[in-house]
User: Which sequence fits this backbone?
């Protein structure tokens, strides 16, 4: 069995569900992907990890730290949960981006077989493997049949994945009944369950939405007109369920203006994802919310895949921070794990008024 400490840590991840992913291509051709990660049960132990080329890694399996061994062909920076190897979102030096999104009740992996340990990888480590091994989506797709993806704990929710590359291509990877299902993600959005094709079909229920203000009408001679701007998308779902977030994110992505540069697009992603912050309290019964958490949205990450920059902010510090992978020598840097926040406190800039 896996170590008891890992089991305890994993047991807390049951509540990680409300992740929202979006993406845009700027006018200069740069491709940017962004996402939030939520957990309403407490503070995730999230860190950023710098992994050099040549770093040797081993996957966990349900029976121990005895799964597939692999050596990094590409250096990467990853945002982890619980453990440094459990990378939830990351970017490698080739510009390949990958992230996991929880997929409860709809995914189903193959059964664990200890005789396959040399080719077995935990679902929570698949992003680590992808970022460390591959430069393109096609390389990932070609290699997937060579590995067995399993869950470390039967009580854990399953996962699906978003993988993106420079140029604007991205896919969604889902494992259902032990088989890989790969979807080209042209809508540029991902949330959680149900499966990706269900979400695309569900968008047809909102064909009436459009940006702007609805036109006035006359009903039996009485003029009916909008009393507020934005009435043309009145009825867009506003709750925090994965189905509603997918619709809302798809509408915002489809209607947002294209920005001129990658940096402008990065800032646009942060602004749009403000709409998907999950406040503490809405996912719990009244007066039963966890204490001392500013938000269930633990962190937001935006990756400029063409320019190899990964930006993030956290629930404790909304200032945007950036790691530029182009400044890292992945042949010489050492493996490093660092907290997302050195201090869990929002810095405030004081404005000094000088009287003459």
Assistant:
């Amino acid at each position: 069995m896996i170590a008891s400490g890992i089991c305890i840590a994993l047991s807390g991840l049951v509540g990680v569900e409300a992740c929202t992913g979006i993406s845009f291509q700027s006018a200069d051709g740069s491709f940017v992907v962004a996402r939030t990660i939520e957990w309403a049960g407490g503070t995730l132990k999230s860190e950023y990890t710098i992994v050099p080329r040549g770093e040797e890694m081993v996957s966990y399996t349900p029976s121990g730290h005895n799964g597939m061994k692999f050596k990094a062909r590409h250096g990467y920076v990853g945002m982890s949960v619980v453990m440094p190897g459990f990378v939830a979102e990351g970017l490698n030096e080739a510009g390949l981006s990958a992230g996991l999104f929880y997929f409860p009740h709809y995914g189903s992996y193959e059964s664990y077989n200890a005789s396959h340990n040399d080719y077995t990888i935990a679902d929570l480590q698949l992003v680590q493997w992808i970022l460390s091994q591959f430069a393109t989506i096609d390389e990932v797709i070609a290699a997937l049949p060579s590995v067995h993806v399993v869950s470390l704990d039967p009580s854990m929710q399953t996962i699906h994945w978003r993988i993106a590359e420079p140029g604007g291509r991205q896919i969604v990877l889902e494992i259902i009944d032990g088989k890989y299902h790969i979807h080209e993600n042209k809508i540029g959005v991902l949330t959680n369950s149900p499966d990706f094709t269900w979400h695309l079909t569900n968008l047809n229920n909102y064909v009436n939405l459009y940006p702007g203000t609805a036109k006035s009408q006359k009903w039996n001679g009485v003029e009916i007109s909008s009393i507020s701007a934005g009435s043309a998308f009145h009825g867009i779902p506003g709750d925090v369920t994965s189905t509603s977030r997918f619709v809302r994110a798809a509408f915002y992505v489809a209607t947002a203006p294209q920005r001129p540069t990658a940096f402008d697009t990065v800032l646009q992603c942060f602004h749009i994802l403000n709409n998907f912050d999950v406040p503490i309290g809405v996912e719990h019964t009244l007066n039963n919310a966890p204490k001392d958490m500013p938000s269930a949205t633990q962190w937001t990450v935006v990756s400029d895949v063409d320019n190899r920059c990964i930006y993030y902010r956290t629930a404790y510090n909304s200032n945007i921070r950036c790691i530029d992978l182009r400044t890292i020598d992945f042949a010489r840097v050492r493996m490093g794990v660092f907290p997302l926040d050195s201090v869990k406190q929002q810095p405030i800039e004081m404005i000094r008024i000088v009287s003459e």
Observations:
- The two ends are 72 Å apart (CA to CA).
- Helices lie at 4-11, 126-133, 137-143, 196-202, 242-255, 262-273.
- The chain has one domain: 4-201+257-339.
